[in-house]
C-alpha cells in the first residue's frame, strides 16, 4: 500500500511541477476555456495508469497524455460540427480551391516534416521534439535529458538543418512555396 501512496505522491508532485508546461502545450491546440478540463483529465489518466504500472518519466508521460487528450477534444469537436452543403453559398464552395490547395500543400509539408524528424538520430530527435513540439526551454531539456545546454543547442541546430535539407530533397521546401505563390499571382493576373 505504501508503494502506491509513494507513486501517487510522486505523480502529483510531477504534475504540479509541469502544470505550466502542460498548459502551454494544450493552449496551442484548444480553446482557452478547455485547458483546465484537459489538464484535469490528464492527471486522472496518469493517476489511473500509475495504479497499473510504474511511470518512469511522469513529466513526459503527462505531456504526451495532455497532447492526446487535447487532440481527442479537437477531433470530437470537429466531428460534431456537421453541416449540409445547403448551408453554404455556391460561391463559398466553388471559390475555395485555392484554400483547398493550400491546405493540401500544408498537410504534405507537415507529413514531410514528420518524416524528416523521424529520420533524425535518436538523441537529436528527442531534443528537437522537446524544443520544437513541446516548447521546452534549453535549460529544461538539458535538465530532463542530463546533457549540457550547449549540447541541446547543437542538437536543435542540427535537427533544423537536417529537416530543412530533407524537406528540400523531398521537394517540400521554401522554394516550392515561393513557386506556388508566384503561380497564384500569375493566375490572378490572367
Query: How many helix segments?
Result: 9
Q: Structural class from helices and strands?
A: mainly alpha
Beta-strand portion reads under 5%
Distance between the termini: 76 Å
Q: Give the overall form.
A: globular
Mean pLDDT: 78
List how many beta strands DSSP finds. Answer: 0
* Biggest β-sheet strands, sense, barrel: none
As a percent range, the share of helical residues equals over 70%
Low-confidence stretches: 81-88, 91-95
How would you describe this structure in keywords?
single chain, 190 residues, mainly alpha, 9 helices
Topology:
Layout: H1 2-27, H2 35-52, H3 58-80, H4 90-94, H5 97-118, H6 122-132, H7 138-145, H8 149-169, H9 174-189
Description:
- With 190 residues, this protein is mainly α.
- The chain is built from nine helices and no strands.
- Helix 1 packs across helix 3 (58-80), helix 5 packs across helix 8 (149-169) and helix 6 packs across helix 8 (149-169).
- The chain is globular and about 55 Å long.
- Mean pLDDT is 78; it is low at 81-88 and 91-95.
Brief characterization of the structure:
The protein is mostly helical. The chain has nine helices and no strands.
